[in-house]
């Protein structure tokens, strides 16, 4: 699996180490990835995701995994997260139509 966040798409960046003598050598800036288990309220399941620390804060700020995925654009999500987003949207639509 690549070193990229499954929710925000944050991935490895490249740059230079620059010494005092101004020598430049290539280096990699790795994202702060955490393996976390997030709970979907709509589906009632737990999902293990590889998420950056910044994305984890965003998920909490938006009110959970369901709210984050419904608001996120599909372009930045991983394949698994896109599938999850579709399942959650379908379930939310079903519950909304049943309530009406």
TrEMBL record:
Keywords: Ribonucleoprotein, Ribosomal protein
Keyword Ribosomal protein: yes
CC per GO annotation: ribosome
Family matches, as NCBIfam families: L28
Similarity comment: family membership: Belongs to the bacterial ribosomal protein bL28 family.
The protein, known as: Large ribosomal subunit protein bL28
Originating organism: Jiella mangrovi
Gene: rpmB
